[in-house]
Specification:
The chain is built from two helices and no strands.
């Protein structure tokens, strides 16, 4: 799977929002992009732990 830099940036912003206790914005994505977004979110959360 090729990593899209835009999706990775959205995932990083999402995780940073969660960590800061703010509202985390989930971007509008096509269904085919959700797996990559959620995988990136999981990886970002694991790195933060």
């Amino acid at each position: 799977m090729k990593n899209d830099p835009e999706i990775l940036a959205h995932a990083k912003a999402f995780v940073n929002g969660l960590k800061a206790g703010k509202n985390a914005h989930v971007p509008a994505l096509r269904f085919a992009q959700w797996q990559q977004f959620m995988t990136a979110v999981r990886c970002q959360k694991e790195l933060a732990a």
